[in-house]
UniProtKB/TrEMBL annotation:
The lineage of its organism: unclassified sequences, metagenomes, organismal metagenomes. Residues 42-112 form the Protein YjdM C-terminal domain. PANTHER family: PROTEIN YJDM, PROTEIN YJDM-RELATED. Pfam families: YjdM (PF03831), Zn_Ribbon_YjdM (PF08274). This is Alkylphosphonate utilization operon protein PhnA. Residues 4-32 form the Protein YjdM N-terminal domain. Belongs to the YjdM family. SUPFAM superfamilies: Prokaryotic SH3-related domain, Zinc beta-ribbon.
Length: 112
C-alpha cells in the first residue's frame, strides 16, 4: 500500500488511487493530490499554512455574539479544524475555553 493522503473533506483514511486522482469511498470526493494542497490551503494572518489539529493564537479581540465578554487577543486555541469551503469566511472550527464551539476566520489567528 502506498501512503495516500486522507480525504480532505471527511478525513477518511480509506482513500484509493484512480489514475492521477485520489478517491474517497466514504464521501465520494475525488481530488488530485498534487494540486489539492494549493487549492484548499488555509493560511494564518502571517501566511503560514494551517492544518487540522494545529494550535493557534488569536491576534485581535473578537466580540462574540451573545457572550458577555470578548475573546481576547493572545487567546490560545487548540486543535482547530479547517473548513476550506466555508461560505461565510469562517474557515476554522474550534473550541475556546469559556466560549465553547466557535468559528473563526483564519485572518484573525496565527499559528502557535
Ligand atoms: Zn471523504
Amino acid at each position: 500500500m502506498e501512503n495516500l493522503p486522507n480525504c480532505p473533506k471527511c478525513n477518511s483514511e480509506y482513500t484509493y488511487e484512480d489514475g492521477s486522482l485520489v478517491v474517497c469511498p466514504e464521501c465520494g470526493y475525488e481530488w488530485n493530490p498534487n494540486t489539492q494542497e494549493e487549492e484548499n490551503v488555509i493560511k494564518d494572518v502571517n501566511g503560514n499554512v494551517l492544518n487540522d489539529g494545529d494550535s493557534v493564537t488569536v491576534v485581535k479581540d473578537l466580540k462574540v455574539k451573545g457572550a458577555s465578554s470578548s475573546i481576547k487577543i493572545g487567546t490560545k486555541v487548540k486543535n482547530i479544524r479547517l473548513v476550506p469551503d466555508a461560505a461565510d469566511g469562517h474557515d476554522i472550527e474550534c473550541k475556546i475555553d469559556g466560549f465553547g464551539a466557535m468559528k473563526l476566520k483564519s485572518s484573525v489567528v496565527k499559528k502557535a
